[in-house]
Amino acid sequence: MTLDVTRAQVLAYRWHAQQLDRAEDVASAPTDCDILDLGIQNTGPDGAAWALRLRGAPAGTSEDLVLAWTLRAAPHCYRRADLAAIATATAPLSDADAAKRIFDANRPLKAAGIPTLDALRSVAEEMRDIVREPTVKGEMSAALTARMSEPYLRFCRPCNATHMYEMPFRLAALQAGLELRPDTSPPVLERIPGWRGKPYSRTGVEADARFDVIRGYLRFFGPSEPKAVAAYVDAPVKDVKGQWPEDTTEVSVDGTPRWILSDDLAALLDPPADDSVRLLGPFDPYLQLKDRELLVSDEARRKALWPTLGRPGAIAVGGEIAGLWRPRTSGKKLTVEVTPWTAMSKAVRAGVDAEASALADFRGVTPAGVVDRE
Prior knowledge:
By secondary structure, the protein is an alpha+beta fold. The protein has 2 domains: 3-205, no CATH class; 277-372, no CATH class. The protein has helices at 7-17, 47-54, 83-89, 95-101, 106-111, 116-130, 137-147, 166-173, 213-221, 226-233, 237-242, 265-269, 292-295, 299-305, 346-363, and strands at 3-5, 40-41, 65-69, 75-79, 135-136, 153-156, 161-164, 178-180, 188-191, 248-253, 256-261, 277-280, 313-317, 320-330, 333-340, 366-372. Strands 12-13-14-15-16 form a 5-stranded mixed β-sheet. α6 (116-130) packs across α8 and α9 packs across α10. It is globular.
């Protein structure tokens, strides 16, 4: 018999699984955050550091954290000690998976009869040789372009030049043992100290359970289904189904079949109640889910929260999205502009005010209050 689960249970479970109900500075260190097993996308002015702060991690930088291009070729934050396992977990599940992840860059490789994983391995080996000292992305790309043959290259009209496709060298960087230096724009790549891994010597099929991306998605965004996981990873649904964990339990969410890791079923059925207010960054892990309609049922509100360009942040209350926010900076002062979706209670408004002050402190500026968008 399939268990029925409500939307409220799902959101409360995810909120708790992602530790958004933890108190400020409750974590022992910046690395003490469960979702680092899956990675935190480091996009936007506050990036992964603010996401960690929202989950109770102490403020400040840590050499125990590291940035690398991984899922969807975006920069993600991980624990430095986990990088070898992450390289395996974020590697493609198959050659077909690798081909899908690099999009149009695979067409010339396929035409030339070059298997995608072999191509990515060649790119990683050249990158490793090029980056012997910290290297700006553009310099690395130029050096790589000079080394690679025609199937790896494209003519870029905006640049009026021929250079490497973007996705292959981003996805190959960690396999080459390269990390991203924090707070650099354009990005600077440098060698990971003590790296001994060989490019693509292991694929995602061999991932440790703790860092397996499919299991990670179910752990933090469950219950879910293969299509959503495939969209999160940029992998073919067939590959995701082929690696679907055996230790899952099927549930019904408003009549739709979904799966949860069996060990997490009890937490899903009886998640702790919480009414914490959080100002989630535009790319916070909580907003990276692929069943957006479950989190935000109204289509117009979904478009406002996830526009093609210029994403706002989200005001979240115990798992529910209550509105949007944007930072407005004037000199050394920060104003938070909010667009509530419903009337805010005094408690929620006080929570937003407190979060805005915390964000100003996080940025090292003076809080100038919260204003409603006109």
